[in-house]
Write a structure and sequence with these properties.
Elements lengths: L1 H18 L9 E5 L2 E4 H15 L5 H24 L6 H18 L4 H8 L3 H26 L6 H9 L12 E9 L5 H19 L4 H8 L11 E5 L6 H7 L11 E3 L2 E11 L2 E9 L5 H19 L5 H8 L28 H8 L10 E4 L5 E12 L10 H26 L3 E3 L9 H4 L4
Antiparallel strand pairs: 1-2, 1-10, 3-9, 4-7, 5-6, 6-7, 8-9
Length: 450
Amino acid sequence: MRRIVFCILFFISCLTSVFSQPSGTVDEIVAIIGKEIITKSELETEYNNYVAQYKTVEDEEEIRCMIFEHLLRQKLFIHQAQVDSIEFTPQEVDSRVNYQINYWLAQVGGNSKVIEEAYHKTMDEIKKDMRELIQNQMITERVQQNITDNVMITPAEVKRFFDKIPDDSLPTIQPSYEFGHIVKLPPVSEEEIAAIKDRLNSFRERALRGEKFSMLARLYSDDPGSAPNGGDLGFVERGTLYPEFEAVAFNLKSGEISPIVQTKAGYHIIQMIERKGEKINVAHILLQPKPSADEQVKAIEFLDSVRQVILDEKMDFSAAALKYSDDMNKNSGGWVVNPYNNSYKFEKDAMEAATFTTVSKLIPGEYSQPVAYVNEDGQMAYRIIYLKTKVAAHKPNLREDYDLIKNAALEEKKQNFINQWLKEKIKVTNIKINPNYRNCPFIDEWEIPE
């Protein structure tokens, strides 16, 4: 947890580059790139952030030059975005900001107080501070994407890239796992569903009588991502949320609160905050019905029997998954897909802690006992896990790690394209560097003699 909080703090500290200069203070201009400028305070803030992250600095001048070059590149990308009329709507930026906030919240168990106390501001104030930083990131990414859109790589290039890496420079590939699961969702009683609906209706009535919807969401919603934000989901377009949710949400008027809506995640009431064109900003309160203890026991016993059928070789794993699993992946043999790289391979960091604890104790070909599980819709379930393969930590090779090496080779090729693009753009862009900041070795590459 402390490592997660530190990473969040480091990201947030970068925001101060936008807001650290006191009002009315004249800041020294270090460089001009088109219509963009770099100030002394920006350089100092970035340097202090670097020191905060890495604790020690062996060569201060080298680090300051590295940061200066990074800022020059970023400002040139932003300048080019203006030339190419690349821009993002406020809704798009807000959506990315909300995504980042929700990611942080997921890392700290949905506890917004951890982030607020670290930054000494409310979540709304943090969001406001983040907007410019996030917008610049989005612009830089789009310009780089435009530069490298058509860059491809061949198998021969991948091999040449790998062959030129010295053996003693090859990093160790962490252990990876391929696994499948058979999932059982315990049914929820009609009494539990009725109780959930009664609670939601009471929340709706309270909001209609004047209580703040956002406060009710903070207090009662089961959605860990949006509850700390008052249920606010940010601006979304069609196709982003559950179809049943969107069918109601997109037809609401400003301030209107919907009747109860059922989705795979549970039961919701929705409030329209704002509409901009084809996008809407809504908040919701989600309640998820919980299965009874008896139904949970039955689910465990059911999975025990399925596990025994497989162990008795009456049915193989994929056939059992197709017949018995309540998960969507049953149609693909029950194999779990890594959402980060769309492959079947998982390293530790790509798995939830509970999943890794179970998987890491298995040997290939072994089945776990039934374990508790929360699926992607937030539903309580149980599952048995089958470990198909485990690849031990090893030095990379083209046979086992081709996709990984290919991606690295492609990234290097894209970076070469970007570097060449920078050289050409520097020649045709008005760039001025303060004489007091011309001691870095790369400066000659950035100023074209008049």
